[in-house]
């Protein structure tokens, strides 16, 4: 008799359950490690809730570029700059596992293809929902847009506030970090780059 075939969806459910239990147990240990009673009423279900939240906040590890763009690339004669501004994002700093929150601005110059508008937000979310540093996040977003669209140029700016700067250490409440990546025409042509920067500045 042949072995039963396990569907990929069943496999994913098993993996998800194991991850949830591992996270839940880890949060229980953290609560105990800081000197709290993990069995008191207010904390009794906290490990389960925190595990569920962490699964959501790191779902980018379980997504692929092909899945999230879902073939939403269309032929187009457009060859002027396209700007998608103020895409909200949140991510987790890989150094302290504290959030950073901000906005992303993406511009590209089409080269025969355009990408469905909502897919830019999905690209940002996929890479943001991982343990990250902002510099790497900015680069990953730019390279992904370039890969999917085949654009003649891509520009990405991310500006964010980091809780690791606000809640601990130097505790600077108004500090903000800005990173940018320019590819293709945006890197090679100062006029294109400046147009992007001015649009973001005055948008």
UniProtKB/TrEMBL annotation:
Domain GTP cyclohydrolase I: 24-200
Domain of life of the organism encoding this protein: Bacteria
Catalytic activity: GTP + H2O = 7,8-dihydroneopterin 3'-triphosphate + formate + H(+)
Pfam families: GTP_cyclohydroI
Keywords associated with the record: GTP-binding, Hydrolase, Metal-binding, Nucleotide-binding, One-carbon metabolism, Zinc
GO BP annotation list: one-carbon metabolic process; tetrahydrobiopterin biosynthetic process; tetrahydrofolate biosynthetic process
This protein's pathway: Cofactor biosynthesis; 7,8-dihydroneopterin triphosphate biosynthesis; 7,8-dihydroneopterin triphosphate from GTP: step 1/1
Positions annotated to bind Zn(2+): 93, 96, 164
Cellular component, GO annotation: cytoplasm
Keyword Magnesium included in the entry's annotation: no
Protein EC: 3.5.4.16
Any one GO molecular function term: zinc ion binding
Assembly and interaction partners: Homopolymer.
Similarity annotation: Belongs to the GTP cyclohydrolase I family.
NCBIfam families (alphabetical): folE, PRK09347.1-2, PRK09347.1-3
PANTHER family, alphabetized: GTP CYCLOHYDROLASE 1, GTP CYCLOHYDROLASE I
Name of the protein this chain belongs to: GTP cyclohydrolase 1
Organism in which the protein naturally occurs: Pseudoalteromonas luteoviolacea S4054
Name of the encoding gene: folE
